[in-house]
């Protein structure tokens, strides 16, 4: 072999040279080469340095517990891909569109009816929005759910009276959960399981859709997928999209001022010295409820308030408190009886 | 130039293990996983820099392996087969991302090995390794496969789905670049 034409790269690519550097093989031979081609010593020494450095490159170690976890998952059946992409990207128009338009058919086991059976909910209370407008449902614990047309919601009759706060959803809804640290609130939406304490969020889970979506407006929400242990924490203005066929979940952060983010703002109110009349109109419009009150008596009343993620009825309660009024809530009808008013401020 | 020698030449022991696994021996399957999980993870992480993704790819890879064990043939190298499959899985699960520059792996070399060599050598080696981190991803991958994971040129060509000459060219370019930066 004529090594006079060799450069550093040639030595690096020479398997026999590599075997010498790495394992000391054919040491005699390479010693002779070094003596025979003194002008190649620099190239050989550089090649040796490169090979040595490359052979002991830093490695990413697989932690024992992760190793065990992977192995356990491999042995578990059926094996599904589980990919939490914690990407902080703007929501694309495509996704926004998807929220507005229901999609093609998809058949699965984890749908509304099956979930009710599976979770053994006896005598569930079911509310269906058969109308053409959003409808507010008040839950026994004080939480409120705004059901979109066609959506249905079930919960155990014993809800918050000795049994878990859990609801089952088919369709799209916006939730405002009454804070109760002792009792987590769980939403079952197709394959998605949403665990919350007190917060507000929107869910879209049509049985025939290929995706399930969760959009968090305030607070923290823990999301998991049926039959999986992994849990993902979502915070305000984050969205999780679950692909039902693969059970993959994508997380994105919402940028402000997107149409989707704006939708959620519908349920946040900041009133600065606002006439009570306009306050009532805004709440009626946002929640699809009907509020009756003596408008002449409250004509001069003004309200300053910041209301964000309280359930609807908590918002009403705060307003009534500020107005020193009494409120009666019956389904979608809210009656406010006030005597008149002073300057009213709700500090929240 | 000396011919390409298969450094990860399959041993009799490995061949037996592979055949036992193909026949459905769970212990053999477990042995194969535990023998290669660490090095596969390292390779995968250098490709994707996403722990969850690499985990998924490995889970997929071994689940598929078990499911399709009856259709598998004898192999010249289990390690080669696994690396090749993992790379394909990762490609399928995501577009392979570049490793962020600030993310430099933890030095795992034992304290003892470091002490044996002179301080100067260590400094030079670390300097070189840092420079290697600046090379284009593909050049880094080839260097790692050849010298760290000890694959033959032929095997690297198979893993990367390119021809052997292209693999050598990548190393040539990497060496030229390293000499420039030195």
Summarize the structure.
The complex is a heterodimer of chains A (about 350) and B (about 180). Chain A has about 350 residues and is an alpha+beta fold.
Q: What key attributes describe this structure?
A:
heterodimer, A: 348 residues, alpha+beta, Jelly Rolls, Phage tail protein beta-alpha-beta fold, 3 domains, 14-stranded mixed sheet, three-stranded mixed sheet, 20 strands, B: 182 residues, mainly alpha, Arc Repressor Mutant, subunit A, 2 domains, elongated
Topology:
The complex is a heterodimer of chains A (348) and B (182).
Chain A: H1 8-13, H2 15-23, H3 27-36, H4 41-55, H5 64-75, E1 84-86, H6 93-100, H7 112-118, E2 124-128, E3 135-138, E4 144-147, E5 152-156, E6 165-176, E7 185-189, E8 192-196, E9 200-205, E10 211-218, E11 221-225, E12 231-234, E13 238-243, E14 248-253, H8 259-265, E15 269-275, H9 276-287, E16 290-292, E17 302-307, H10 312-322, E18 326-330, E19 333-337, E20 344-346
Parallel strand pairs in A: 1-14, 6-7, 16-19, 17-20
Antiparallel strand pairs in A: 2-5, 3-4, 4-6, 5-6, 6-9, 7-8, 8-11, 9-10, 10-13, 11-12, 13-14, 15-17, 18-19
Chain B: H1 12-22, H2 26-48, H3 51-67, H4 78-93, H5 111-116, H6 119-132, H7 137-148, H8 153-160, H9 164-181
Helix pairs in contact in B: 1-2, 2-3, 2-4, 3-4, 4-8, 7-9, 8-9
């Amino acid at each position: 072999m004529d090594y006079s034409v060799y450069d550093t790269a040639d030595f690096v690519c020479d398997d026999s040279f590599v075997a010498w550097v790495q394992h000391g093989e054919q040491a005699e031979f390479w010693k002779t080469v070094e003596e025979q081609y003194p002008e190649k010593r620099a190239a050989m020494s550089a090649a040796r340095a490169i090979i040595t450095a490359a052979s002991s490159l830093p490695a990413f170690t697989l932690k024992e517990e992760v190793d065990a976890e992977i192995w356990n998952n491999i042995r578990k059946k059926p094996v599904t891909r589980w990919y939490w992409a914690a990407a902080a990207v703007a929501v694309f128009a495509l996704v926004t569109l998807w929220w507005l338009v229901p999609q093609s058919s998809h058949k699965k086991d984890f749908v509304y009816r099956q979930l009710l059976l599976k979770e053994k909910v006896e005598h569930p209370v079911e509310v269906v929005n058969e109308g053409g407008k959003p409808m507010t449902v008040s839950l026994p614990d004080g939480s409120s759910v705004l059901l979109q047309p066609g959506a249905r919601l079930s919960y155990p009759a014993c809800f918050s009276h000795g049994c878990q706060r859990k609801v089952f959803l088919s369709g799209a809804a916006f939730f405002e959960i009454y804070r109760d640290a002792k009792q987590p609130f769980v939403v079952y939406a197709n394959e998605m399981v949403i665990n919350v304490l007190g917060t507000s969020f929107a869910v879209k889970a049509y049985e025939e859709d290929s995706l399930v979506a969760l959009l968090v407006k305030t607070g923290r929400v823990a999301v998991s997928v049926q039959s999986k242990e992994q849990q993902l924490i979502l915070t305000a203005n984050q969205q999780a999209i679950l692909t039902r066929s693969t059970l993959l979940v994508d997380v994105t952060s919402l940028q402000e001022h997107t149409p989707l983010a704006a939708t959620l703002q519908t349920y946040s109110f900041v009133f600065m010295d606002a006439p009570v009349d306009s306050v009532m109109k805004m709440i009626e419009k946002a929640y699809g409820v009907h509020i009756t009150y003596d408008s002449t008596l409250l004509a001069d009343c003004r309200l300053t308030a910041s209301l964000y993620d309280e359930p609807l009825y908590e918002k009403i309660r705060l307003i009534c408190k500020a107005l020193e009024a009494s409120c009666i809530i019956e389904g979608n009808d809210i009656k406010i009886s006030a005597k008149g008013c002073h300057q009213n401020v709700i500090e929240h | 130039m000396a011919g390409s020698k298969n450094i990860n030449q399959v041993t009799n022991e490995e061949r037996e293990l592979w055949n036992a696994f193909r026949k459905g021996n769970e212990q053999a399957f477990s042995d194969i996983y535990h023998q290669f999980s660490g090095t596969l993870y390292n390779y995968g992480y250098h490709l994707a820099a996403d722990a969850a993704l690499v985990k998924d790819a490995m889970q997929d890879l071994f689940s598929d392996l078990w499911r399709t064990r009856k259709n598998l043939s004898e192999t010249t190298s289990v390690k080669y087969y696994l690396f090749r499959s993992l790379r394909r899985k990762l490609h399928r699960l995501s577009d392979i991302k570049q490793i962020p520059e600030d993310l430099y792996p933890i030095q795992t070399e034992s304290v003892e090995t470091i002490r044996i060599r002179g301080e100067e050598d260590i400094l030079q080696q670390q300097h070189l390794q840092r420079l290697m981190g600046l090379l284009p991803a593909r050049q880094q991958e080839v260097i790692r496969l050849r010298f760290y994971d000890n694959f033959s040129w032929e095997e690297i060509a198979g893993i990367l789905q390119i021809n052997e000459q292209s693999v050598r060219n990548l190393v040539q370019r990497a060496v030229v670049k390293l000499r420039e930066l030195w």
